Amino acid sequence: MNEILLDTRGHRCPVPTLKLRRACETAPPGSTLRVLADDPLARIDIPHFIAQAGLELIGIESEGRMTTVTLRKPL
What we know:
This protein is of the alpha+beta class. 32% of the residues lie in helices and 35% in strands. It contains two helices and four strands. It has a four-stranded mixed sheet with strand order 1-2-4-3, with helices on one face. The longest helix is centred in the first third of the chain and has 12 residues. The chain starts with a strand and ends with a strand. The mean pLDDT is 96.
C-alpha cells in the first residue's frame, strides 16, 4: 500500500490537522499516512480529527518536541 508522509514541522495548529484533512481527501483507500509535527497541540488535535473522520490510528510516537502520528485510511 501507499505511504504518504506529511511534514508539518514548523506549522502551528490548526495547520497540521488541515494538511492531514486535505491529504486524506486525495489519498486512496487503504493508504497509510504519517504526520510529522513539532506543535505540542498536534498530539491532541490530530488523534481527535482521526477519530471524528473514521480513520484508523496506528500509533503516536513522541521524541522531544517531535510527534509522529501514523494512521490508515479505511478501504
